[in-house]
Each structure stands twice: as C-alpha cells, then as structure tokens.
Amino acid sequence: MTMRRYSAFSLLRNALSHNRNWGRAWRSPEPKKSYDAIVVGGGGHGLATAYYLAKNHGIRNVAVLEKGWIGGGNTGRNTTIVRSNYLWTEAALLYEKSMQLWEGLSQDLNYNVMFSQRGVYNLGHSLQDMRDIERRVGANRLNGIDAEVVGSGELRKAIPGLNLSPDARYPILGASLQRRAGVARHDAVAWGFARAADALGVDIVEQCQITGIDIRDGKAVGVQTTRGSITSDRIGVVVAGHAGVLARMADLRLPIESHPLQAFVSEPIRPVLDTVVMSGAVHGYISQSDKGELVIGAGIDAYNGYGQRGSFPVIEHALQAIIELFPAFSRVRMLRLWGGIVDVCPDACPIVSKTPVEGLYFNCGWGTGGFKATPGSGWAFAHTMARDEPHELNAPFSLERFATGALIDEHGAAAVAH
Ligand code: FAD
Ligand code: PYC
User: Fold this and answer.
1) Inter-residue contact 370 to 381 (CB < 8 Å)
2) Dmax over Cα atoms in the chain, in whole Å?
C-alpha cells in the first residue's frame, strides 16, 4: 500500500515537474586524452561492442565516440525485424548467436528492449520460391535453428487479411516461418546497451565526430575528433553506411557500397497484424508496432549516396506491394517516412575483422539486415578487439574473404531489401 502511494506520488511529481527530477541514464563525460579502447560509432553495434568489452573482457577504460546522438543512425531508423534464418552455416550461426543473446537481453541489461517473438513469415509465390524456402528451412534445421514450411491454409488462419486469392499477380503458395523471430524496440536497444556500458565505466561521448585516424609504423595510435585528439592502440570502427569514409582515413579500401534504405509508418490503427510478413517477390514487408502503426519497408534505392532519404519510385513500389498483400490497407493513411544509409557488401554479409593496420578493426557491411545482429555483432567484435583475433563465429567474416574468394552469398536471406 505504502509502495503504491509512493509510486502515484512519484508519477504526479514527475508529471508536474516535466521530468526534471529524473536522473540521467548514462553520464555525458568530457573525452579523456587516452583510452584502452575506442569504439567509433554509437549505434547499437558500437554500444554493444563497448558493453561486451567491459563485461566479457574486463576492458573498461573505453570510449564510444559518436558524431551525433546515440542510436541516431540506422539503429533508430530500421524496421526492427529480428530473425536468424540465414542459409549458409557461417551466417546462420552468427545470427543465431545473436538470437540467443536477444532472448536474454532485457534481463542481461536490466532494461526492457521489448523483444517480441511474434514470428516472421517469408512468403513464397512460385514453385521455385517454395523450393528455395524448403532448402533454407532444411538448412536452418540442420543448424539447430527453428524453421518451418507452412502452406496457404495455415497462412489463412494465422494472418487475417492476407490476400490468398489465386488470382493475385503473385499468388501466395506458402511461406517459411521462424516462430522465435520477431521485433524489438530499436531505441531501447541503444539506450539499454548505453546505460549498461556506462555503468561498467564506459565513456559515451556524443557530438564527437572522428575526422582522422592516426597511424604510426603500421599501427593505430589514436583518432582526431571535433573534440580534440585521443590516443588508443585499439580502435574499432562501427559506423555502418559511413564505413567507406572512415576506411579512407586509414588508407584502406573496403568492398562496400552505401545506399539509402527507406521505411514508412502509417497512422496508428487497432491491432490487426500480430506477426511479421515479408515478400521478396512483391518486394515489401510489414509488421505492426505496439503503438498501432503499420511499419513498412521495401528494397534499397539503387543509387549510392549519404542523404538519409530516398526516392519516390521506391515508396510507390513498396506501397503497391503492401496493398497487393493486404488490400484492406489501401484505406490506411501513411504518417511519415525516413531513410538510413546502409553499407552493402558484394555477398550481402558483414565484415567483422582485423585490418592490415595493427590495432584497427572494422565492423560493417551489415547492409539492410544488421539490427537483428546487434548483440551478436558486439559480442564477437569485442572478442576480436580484446584478443586481437576473431572468434570462430566471426572468423569467416574477415576482410580476407574478398581476396580468397570465400564469399558467403546471403542475398537470398537478405531477400526483400535487396
Ligand atoms: P548505426 O546505427 O548507423 O550506427 C553507426 C553510427 O556511427 C551512427 O550513429 C553514426 O552517426 C556514427 N558515425 C558515422 N560516422 C562517424 C564519425 N566520423 N565519427 C563518429 N561517429 C560516426 N536490419 C534488421 O536486422 N532488420 C530490419 O528490419 C532492418 N530494417 C531496416 C530498415 C531501414 C530503413 C534501414 C535504414 C536499415 C534497416 N536494417 C534492418 C539495417 C540495420 O538498421 C543496420 O544494419 C544496423 O542498425 C546497423 O547498426 P550500426 O550500429 O552498425 O549502425
Ligand atoms: O533483415 O529482416 C531483415 C530486414 C527486413 C527489412 C530490412 N531488413
């Protein structure tokens, strides 16, 4: 009873004081002159890297240097789909490690990241689509990852409103389903990792852009920033769409192209869709947020660029796709749209790797699908930075694969966004 009165009083006090009494969730420190490790980029992957450096490897004198505000890049711009149903063993195991971390993340961070395992359906519209689905589901199961093939009868029961007419332009024959897949709250992921990393001593420095990487005798020795120079002999770069720009500062060339990727939300409506539906054939995907908005996306804009917006033809194409899948949604009004800059590798797989510069590490190339990898990517990259060697989970994702030809082609699993 006392507790309830206290909570009600506290709520009222905070409402009347416009939250002025709230403490900060993480500090806002001045950058130090030197750190044991620097992580460039305060997206989910950078913050997760710093957290696992501190938690798993005891490296706590760490700075995350972010040019804007944390989570303001792709982390705060994505459509939050989390799944691990990739085809090739190398990718499947890395994304599955991430899935397992997602499953305990709210408890681990003591912060509700709202991970909702509502299932993800990848639709099949032709006999060949269904054969590809069967192959991928089979491969997933061999890797111990939950996956099922479902027919149109089951889709009818599970997804009200889905257009299962045989007269559709691309009739729906079935789908793959990963039941453990779903969505999470993107901002909460950044904030949860930030708060937990800060509590372990990590300095999170916002409004601090890296403008140069200092290299002496082939070794990384520090960075130039808009808030002065900072030394460190261990520097991890995790800047997604800007990976090529940062690589150039170290005289490296990455096999990365930066493209805009757009997404949209509708006005909030009552709960109508309790799962995630993706279609690589009509090129669209959709889920419903907890606020009731329909969250919609499509493929990348084909040109390269750094403007965080996209072009009109892609918007039109995406909405055509969604209306084809769910004709009733033609009556829903769209609320807003935005874009992010994604970093795409030729094999649609990431780079989590040492570089030819000693002490300089790159984590990039997650392209259109890195949100789902946030905890796993940070976990593996922290291992790589702490030990100066990759973990077996990210060893296949080194830069060398572009010289040896050992590419891991996951265009099929990336599907809808490519
Ligand atoms: P970011 O969050 O972009 O963080 C990089 C940070 O580096 C940024 O905050 C940036 O400001 C900072 N930075 C850049 N340059 C500098 C510099 N010079 N100095 C300091 N800091 C710098 N993935 C999924 O798995 N599921 C999805 O449903 C999904 N949907 C998507 C939808 C859209 C519209 C977009 C754009 C992406 C989507 N993705 C999805 C991909 C996913 O968002 C990214 O792969 C992932 O968020 C990358 O995380 P990050 O932490 O590496 O990058
Ligand atoms: O990787 O699942 C994904 C995805 C969906 C939309 C963009 N990326």
Assistant:
1) no
2) 67
Unique residue bearing structure tokens 């099929």: 412
Q: Is residue 1 situated within a structural domain?
A: no
Contact 218, 252 (CB under 8 A): no
Residue whose CA is closest, atom 2 of ligand 2? Answer: 81
Ligand 2 pocket (Cβ < 6 Å) reads: 79, 81, 83, 285, 297, 368-369, 416-417
The residue range of the domain holding 34 is 26-116+182-256+346-418
What is the pTM for the complete model shown? 0.96
- How far, in Å, from the CA of 27 to the mean position of ligand 1? 23
Q: Which two tokens stand for residue 45?
A: 């992957």
CA distance 214 to 317: 45
Beta carbons within 8 Å of 66's beta carbon, 6+ residues apart: 41, 42, 46, 72, 204, 205, 206, 207, 208
Is 240 close to ligand 1, i.e. is its CB under 6 Å away?
yes
Q: Answer with the one of 313, 344, 375 that is the final residue of a domain.
A: 344
pLDDT tens column, 266-320 = 999 999 999 999 999 998 999 999 999 999 998 999 999 999 988 999 999 999 9
List strands edge to edge, sheet with 174-178: 148-151, 174-178, 120-124, 276-279, 284-288, 294-300, 257-266, 334-344
pLDDT at 7 over 80: no
Rounded to the nearest whole angstrom, what is the distance from the C-alpha of residue 196 to the centroid of ligand 1? Answer: 20
Atom of ligand 1 nearest to the CA of 44: 51
